[in-house]
Design brief:
The protein is 39% helix and 22% strand. The protein contains 23 helices and 19 strands. Among the domains are: 107 residues, 2-Layer Sandwich (Beta-Lactamase), CATH 3.30.450.90; 277 residues, P-loop containing nucleotide triphosphate hydrolases (Rossmann fold). Strands 13-12-14-15-11-16-19 form a seven-stranded mixed β-sheet, sandwiched between helices. The protein has a six-stranded antiparallel β-sheet with strand order 7-6-5-10-9-8, covered by helices on one side. A four-stranded mixed β-sheet has the order 1-4-3-2. A hairpin with a 2-residue loop joins strand 6 and strand 7. By secondary structure, it is an alpha/beta fold. The termini are far apart.
Length: 594
């Protein structure tokens, strides 16, 4: 390898040189990216992002340094960007070139403009003509620019729509609702229902909702978003528009709009708020009329690695050791919506390499993983977890992922695969790790097969993170500390020290973070989620208890005696590290005092 290729030459610093010199990136990381670039092509910055060796802010900083421009990490609030600047630049131009005017200098009249590509000098010239003033470019992360474009233009459009609505007669029948801009831009000639449904989806994506619920009421239509696991009312519409709303969503999902008696399932793929969004649509008839639930999946989001999902260093080390084994079964357990699929994808990403043949059967395939063959179940043609898994064994796999073990047949094939030299990932719906063992036995699997195939069980929950804009330290009651499984005296003097977790923000010793509420978190007090985990290793004692058909409580006690960190204790550790709150941990580990 030519060193100049990686690190630049005197007087012309290249991206790799800047990242090594200014941000401390290791030269070996640059070498790895260059090798990947030679194999697959693309820009070196994009390759570094794809390999998760840097983030968008770091790339933007390096590009700014290279172009001798200023870098901005945090863009101004949407309400601080004035309308005259936004009116001068069409939203489609802003999104196409990922540019956003930020502020006008009151003395010079020059306008500061954020852009993602500092080499796009012709775009800077175009903006200067549009605005009629000189431009001072600054570099920012592309995702932040697109997000701010949606916020800024959406706020101004919403204000215009509201002003227009206020001029209407109260008896007017038009479906006059405040509209948020979506990426499908030319909506002016479309029906109000279409604009309203698009607005609904845009707002859901902007607020990070995982689900949209459209529910018929006696007098109106209620729309709720599930954000960070909690349902919140989003908006209401007059009842007379229910049929039109349902029909519009059905058309988008390719469903039969005339069939109102039976449940239907469909799918919508759209680019919304700058993101590629996959929506799973489910309808069901109720006494009050049809209701719809839409599951949102952001396909443009970056898949999280094992180090990014909230695992403490000790748990992370154990999991990484397990998934590198040549054969066996790792089961991830927890209720629906506990993040099991995210964990499985993180595991697969960790071990994915050209020398591994990895096959998955899922329901549904949520993310496309490069280098991995993924199959989606289709019961209509008898393509189930079991049939998919059975066929995989004829394709020389090294690693197999089964979305869920629901029945004896799937369990038997998974165990057979693990005992014949393959590593199998899967999930089961149980409250804790030990419960997965008894669940397999209850399915009719022989205990000796369970004991000889399982290598680990990972139970997990998702807990909400406090909003760091408004959370405040608080001294908890002694009873609360005891319920977390901690010694009050040790806690109050700050005597607990736990393995590090990425992103931890510990409050002062002897305190926990208390949610408050502010505009940043929509006055909820929480923003985002992280995981709490319980890693049960299959040691000789656990294997012996499995053969004896011991109950889950006995197995759990034996694992705890061997050093297993329970869900409750891992949650308590994250409370001390400022990653969640006592209320969240108590709520998510309430079953059987986990």
């Amino acid at each position: 390898m030519n060193p100049a290729e990686a690190y630049g030459t005197p007087g012309t610093p290249l991206l790799g040189e800047i990242l090594v010199r200014e941000l401390g990136l290791r030269p070996e990381a640059i070498d790895k990216a260059l090798e990947k670039q030679r194999e697959e092509g693309g820009l070196i910055g994009e390759v570094l992002l794809k390999l998760r060796l840097i983030d968008e802010d770091q790339l933007a900083f390096a590009l700014a340094q290279q172009a001798e421009m200023a870098f901005v990490r945090d863009l101004p609030r949407a309400e601080d960007v004035t309308a005259d600047l936004i009116d001068a630049i069409p939203i489609n131009f802003a999104k196409q070139h990922r540019v956003l005017p930020l502020a006008r200098d009151p003395e010079t009249g020059r306008v500061q403009v954020a852009l993602a590509d500092p080499t796009a000098l012709e775009v800077i010239d175009d903006i200067a003509v549009m605005i009629g003033a000189g431009v001072d470019p600054v570099v920012a992360a592309p995702a932040k620019i697109v997000d701010h474009i949606n916020k800024v233009y959406g706020r101004l459009r919403q204000g215009a729509e509201l002003e227009h609505d206020n001029k209407k007669d109260e008896g007017e029948d038009e479906f006059g609702q405040a509209e948020e801009l979506v990426d499908i831009l030319d909506l002016n000639d479309e029906a109000p229902i279409i604009r309203w449904v698009n607005s609904l989806m845009f707002q859901a994506v902007k607020e990070r909702a995982s689900d949209i619920h459209i529910e018929p009421g006696e007098k109106d239509v209620l729309v709720r978003y599930r954000i960070d696991g909690v349902l919140r009312e989003a908006k209401r519409a007059p009842r007379k528009f229910l049929a039109s709303i349902i029909a519009r969503v059905k058309i988008m999902a390719g469903l039969n709009i005339a069939e109102k008696r039976l449940p239907q399932d469909g799918r919508i793929r759209r680019k919304i708020a700058g993101k590629d969004v996959d929506m799973r649509v489910a309808t069901v008839p109720t006494a009050g009329g049809e209701r719809i639930t839409i599951r949102l999946l952001d396909r443009s989001s970056v898949l999280l690695g094992l180090a990014d999902i909230g695992m403490a260093e000790d748990t992370l080390e154990v999991v990484r050791g397990i998934i590198k084994r040549p054969h066996g079964i790792l089961l991830v357990t927890g209720p629906t919506g506990s993040g099991k699929t995210t964990t499985l994808y993180a595991c697969l990403s960790e071990i994915n390499s050209p020398d591994q043949n990895i096959l998955t059967v899922e329901d549904p395939v949520e993310y496309q993983l490069e280098g991995i063959s993924q199959t989606q179940v289709n019961p209509k043609i008898d393509l189930t977890f079991a049939t998919g898994l059975r066929s995989f064994l004829r394709h020389d796999p090294d690693v197999i992922m089964v979305g869920e073990i629901r029945d004896k047949e799937t369990a038997e094939i998974a165990i057979t695969a693990s005992l014949t030299g393959h590593f199998v990932f899967s999930t089961v719906h149980t409250n804790d790790a030990a419960g997965a063992i008894t669940r397999l036995v209850d399915m009719g699997i022989e205990p000796f097969l369970v004991a000889s195939s399982l290598v680990g069980l990972l139970a997990q929950r998702l807990v909400r993170r406090p909003c760091y804009e408004c959370a405040r330290p608080s001294r908890p009651d002694e009873q609360v500390v005891l319920q977390l499984g901690l010694d009050p005296a040790t806690f109050y003097r700050g005597g607990y020290h736990f393995p590090a977790v990425k992103g931890e923000r510990p409050p002062p010793p002897g305190t926990v973070l208390e949610p408050v509420g502010c505009p940043s978190c929509l006055d909820v007090g929480y923003r985002g989620r992280t995981g709490i985990y319980e890693m049960l290793m299959i040691n000789e004692k656990v294997r012996h208890l499995t053969l004896e058909k011991a109950d889950a409580g006995t197995i759990r006690a034996a694992a705890a005696a061997a050093g297993m960190v329970s869900l409750r204790l891992d949650g308590a550790r994250k409370v001390i590290q400022g990653l969640t709150t006592t209320e969240e941990v108590m709520l998510m580990t309430a079953e059987a005092d986990l």
